[in-house]
Amino acid sequence: MNRFIKQFQNGIVGILTVLVILLTGCIEEEGRGGGASITSDPVGAEILLNGSPAGKTPAKFSKLTPGAYTVELRKEGYGRTYEKIALLEGQEVNLEIPLVQVAGLLLVKSDPAGSDVVINSELMGTTPALVTELPLGTYEVTIRSAGLPERKIPVELLDRKPVQLEVRHAPRVAVNSYPPGAEILVDGEMKGLAPLVLEDIPMGEHVLMAQLDQHDSQEQKIILVSGLNDAVEFNLEKNSGTLVLDTEPALVEVYVDGTLFATTQPKEGADSISQPVRIALKAGIDHQIQLVREGHSSASLKLRTEIDQVVTRHEILKRIFVYDTRITTKTEVISCRLEYKLPNGNLYYERFPGVYNTARAADVLDVQPISLEDASNRDARRLIEKSRETMQGE
After folding, report:
1. Residue 78, domain extent
2. Which helix (H) or strand (E) element contains residue 221?
3. Are 305 and 363 part of one and the same domain?
């Protein structure tokens, strides 16, 4: 009985050993297997032997069971490649398998047709063009057409599914102005200074405007058609004269027709007089010029110029002297503008416009503030009221 059981167990082991050899395709006994070396161009391709993964190229296999094998290579961006081999006992096989890149399909159209299609600096045809030789990947496609702006568009080819690219060329518009430097607006939107070339303006009707200081603005309507460029020229007519203004003192705000135009700047660092300011005024009409500086009487004047006329004006703003302090000393009562108190207690003050003095601390009995309503400020109130009337009524 024991012998029968032992024979049965040995039989099972034998069957299992045969199954293992058939499933793995390997022979453990020395001298019975074959070998194969597999490489690819480029390397790094996944290897499948009879459908089972077996590493990446380059690879070398030994002790393969003699017989028929299907070798499959896979690599992203390349087509699958198959080779069949019949391996004899003891035979060594060397496989060098070139891989073929997978090409995408790109259809390029343009309006107008006949544009050059350039990829990687190589002309691939003219639109409409079907490009069939591009390996999968990302490209910048350049569309060129005579007289039209060059277009660069990124394209990604992921598989053999066709990708369609359509470009509609907007015409160019060359814009010039005389004199040059006019601001160019398209449908109210600022585009730059003439001369300039407008690109990518949608087809259809548009209003172009040219604006230049001291010149009349001009408008022109254009209709843009696909594939047809245009040119626009503006001849602007001068419409103004010039006011050259300086003020005494400086730092005076200059308003032209109610809008702040500039603030006069000190001449050679002195606040007493300003550098001249040039103001362009439309010719043939009256303009209101108002001059304002805090602590000074305002000034207002009407001015009319002719085309190219230069008018020079020197305007003096009278200082409004407002008393703010009353100092009582042992000998007198002083109404003044207090400048500052010295460390020793002395008071430095302006008694009259431009006249300064010092009250010694030992002589000062009392110091009181003075409001604008004080009798001493009667003249100041009159000048302030006059300045307000000037600003509001003229």
Report:
1. 2-98
2. strand 218-224
3. no
